[in-house]
């Protein structure tokens, strides 16, 4: 079963959604038969890559009052504690396009989930600039990517097309917010759902479309005559 997840590095609910999804996945007996692909999505592609904006200023310019911003922070802190996530003060708003290129590069090496986790932690807990190439290369190094190769990738146009294709794909299938989960291009789940919801949804989807075809308890032969 194939699961595609559209997510953005500076989306706190994507971080929570990732935690819940992975906790749920670990509880599913078919987890070894499920492939996960992380897809790029930018909440604000117009943000600068070189001039960070304080989150407070960013939201105030978009009509949110200081009280609303503070209330949102308080709510996120409470949610973060429940999921073992530290949402620290002082986040900056920055273009995440190059962070998504790092994720795409990591995905080509089988390390996309690790890259997502590293970037979420860097952005929300460590308040790092995830548009800075040295910072991105260091995050890559921490998850097992070669730092020199990562810097070379970032200083090229590698994976620009893949990021843009994911964004276009999201638009075509009607994604308007993240996190957004698509199962076998047939079922969709939106938002940071609870663990129990993910367990139920993923189990039902797998058993409906894959269980009968893949189950083999030794009482039947396959088309090649194996297991007879």
From TrEMBL:
Start and end residues of each DSBA-like thioredoxin domain: 3-202
InterPro entries: DSBA-like_thioredoxin_dom (IPR001853), Thioredoxin-like_sf (IPR036249)
Highest taxon listed in the record's lineage: Bacteria
CDD domains xrefs: DsbA_FrnE
SUPFAM superfamilies reported in the protein's UniProt record: Thioredoxin-like
Pfam families: DSBA
PANTHER family: GLUTATHIONE S-TRANSFERASE KAPPA, THIOREDOXIN SUPERFAMILY PROTEIN
The protein's name in its UniProt record: DsbA family oxidoreductase
Organism: Faecalibacter bovis
